[in-house]
Amino acid sequence: MRVAQVTRFGDPEVLVPAEVPDPVAGPGEVVVRVSDVDTIFVETQVRAGAFGGHFPVKAPYVPGGGVAGQVNAVGEGVDPGWVGRRVVTALGFTGGYAEQAVARAAKLVPVPDGLGLRDAVALVHDGVTATALLESTGLAAGERLLLLGASGGMGTLLVQLARSAGAHVVAVARGERKTLLVRELGADTVVDATRPDWVGQARAALGSTGADVVLDGVGGDMGLAAFPLAADGGRFSAHGAPTGGFAPVDPAEATRRGIKLVGIEDVRLPDDAYVRLAAKALAEAAAGRLRPVIGGTFPLERAADAHRAIESRELLGKVLLTT
Q1: Whole-angstrom Cα distance, residue 104 to residue 271?
Q2: In the chain, N or C terminus with fewer CB closer than 10 Å?
Q3: All residues at 6 or more sequence positions from 28 whose CB lies less than 8 Å from its CB, including other chains
Q4: Cα-based torsion angle of the residue sequence 156, 100, 26, 7 in order, rounded to the nearest 10 degrees
Q5: What are phi and psi of 180, to 5 degrees?
Q6: pTM score of the predicted model
Q7: Residue 309 φ then ψ, to 5°
Q8: Is beta strand 144-148 parallel, antiparallel or unpaired with respect to 211-216?
Q9: How far are the Cα atoms of 115, 162, 199 from residue 167, in angstroms, in the given order?
Q10: pLDDT tens sequence for the chain (323 residues)
């Protein structure tokens, strides 16, 4: 079968097409014939050689942790009723950039009728994480949310989910195209991060008490600059690191101000929680209440171009691969 394989760590050109044997389902596993593949920013960072301590992969490897498709075969101990069903699933971190992928049956999520596989796969990571973040921070109706990275795949979902929850959303994005998109999705106030006074604008939009919840999908200095905008007794989630690192918030300062810190470890979910949250996100999309923003799709053979598009940050929303 065809795959896209990282031959060594480096620039996008190390991600090349290859042929490998068809996979076989082991006990508790299925084989999914893949139609669409989710891509996320951290996959480009790992391909470039970063985060080896968090993602201990060795080249050559096939990236890809989230796929949509149809169950092709089941292994020992798996209900044969899965065969032929449309599903999404999270694989871990490898194996998804392929025509077929082995997945654990415990992590299969059926795709509702009426929802396309392309929209479904756009939720396989970001929809789950976005829903988990709102649960872990306890965002409630009437609260003020500051959202960094609002125009990305997960940010666009968070805008919609937070508005549905009744929160007042102050969203931060970069440039005219991205801020316009975020405004169209329902943010109450949109702040352009390219402006030198973006922190002051966000502070003015949040009011004197600040944000009840800050969701930082950017990290680094930008995330750190947003920390003072959190209200005393509020919640601050440092879950994003496309800048190269998570926001280096001082835990002692957070404790002094009574701010609950949430990190990426809080959205690493056991199988049952993943399935529950994925099903919830898919149901919202099937009902028309949640719209994934897909900025670009690339055939499997052009996975390197997909990575370039992600790294350029020029496309809005998600970048997907198709087989």
Answers
A1: 10
A2: N
A3: 75, 76, 77, 78, 104, 105, 106
A4: -90
A5: -65, -45
A6: 0.91
A7: -65, -40
A8: parallel
A9: 27, 6, 20
A10: 999 999 999 999 999 999 999 999 999 999 999 999 999 988 999 999 988 777 889 999 999 999 999 999 999 999 999 999 999 999 988 999 999 999 999 999 999 999 999 999 999 999 999 999 999 999 999 999 999 999 988 999 999 999 999 999 999 999 999 999 999 999 999 999 999 999 999 999 999 999 999 999 888 899 999 999 999 999 999 887 676 678 889 999 999 999 999 887 777 789 999 999 999 999 999 999 999 999 999 999 999 999 999 998 888 889 999 99
The neighbour count for residue 159, using CB atoms within 10 Å, is 29
Helix, strand, or coil here: 139? coil
Residue with tokens 């969203």: 171
3-class SS of residue 219: coil
Helical ranges in 165-219 per DSSP H:
176-184, 198-206
Nearest residue to 90 via CA among 283, 269, 292, 308: 269
Q: Token pair for residue 257?
A: 């101000």
Report d(CA 91, CA 120) in Å as an integer: 15
What amino acid occupies position 173? Answer: A
Any idea what the Cα angle at residue 169 is, between residues 163 and 175, rounded to 5°?
A: 115
Residue in the structure block whose two tokens are 């996975």 = 303
Helix (H, G, I), strand (E, B) or coil at 283: helix
- Judged by DSSP in three states, 107 sits in helix
C-alpha span between 188 and 91 (Å, rounded): 36
Peptide bond into 110 cis (omega under 30): no
